[in-house]
């Protein structure tokens, strides 16, 4: 026997709860799917934006360690990093093998591109000669704590060379700047100082200067016939000055010409000091005499006379 639709039993409260739960689950699933779809769309959009502004790069050889000067470059000192092609340094290498064995003529810091301008010519040996430009000479001079600026002279500094000597017999000794703005190539056996060594005094006995051929002759004569003094220049100061030199008579004459107070100038008024008041004379001692006359009583004072000795 079949049941007609109009004869079906009405939905119970339990059935209604099940239907609401089913609708809730369905809504939650749809919301999750929608969120995932939105996230995927945003990710694709951002990737497209990044791809649109991404700059093409090319490999550039850089230093993986601090490379010292006048030292052949080793393979483990080099690495390759991506570099924007729009900002490639001129002459930058892309293969480390092309730079292995070459000699640095300036310090190269870690992460810095290794460029031909920082390297000696191909085939150059390590040592001080690689640091000399064409036409320049390296001359070593003997120094001490005084001549070498108390040990604060470092490779790369600029100095003036002052010599004190007697030009000829019967002429006073003269001090004169003979060389200016001379580069210090090395101090002692150090071509460069790094870290704490560059901050503390470094007493040495020899300094190597970079000079021209003519300057090397002047430096040699000054060192052999006179006494040298190195004057440290300020960083970036390359100005050349014209000095006349100085002799002991000129030195003492200039000291005697220091400004003095002219005799014609009126003397400054003196402050008067009040004289001390004279000590007061001590009060004279008085003697009191009491006189009694019957019913009368009288008191009289008499000054005591100084006793004679």
UniProtKB/TrEMBL annotation:
Using the record's annotation, list all stretches that form the SAF domain: 58-120
Q: Which UniProt keywords apply?
A: Membrane, Transmembrane, Transmembrane helix
Q: Where is the signal peptide?
A: none
For the region Disordered, give the residue spans.
257-286
TM ranges: 21-42
Domain of life assignment: Bacteria
Q: Which InterPro entries match?
A: Pilus_assmbl_Flp-typ_CpaB (IPR017592), RcpC_dom (IPR031571), SAF (IPR013974)
Q: What is this protein called?
A: Flp pilus assembly protein CpaB
Per the UniProt record, the source organism is Anaeromyxobacter dehalogenans (strain ATCC BAA-258 / DSM 21875 / 2CP-1)
Q: What is the lineage of its organism?
A: Bacteria, Pseudomonadati, Myxococcota, Myxococcia, Myxococcales
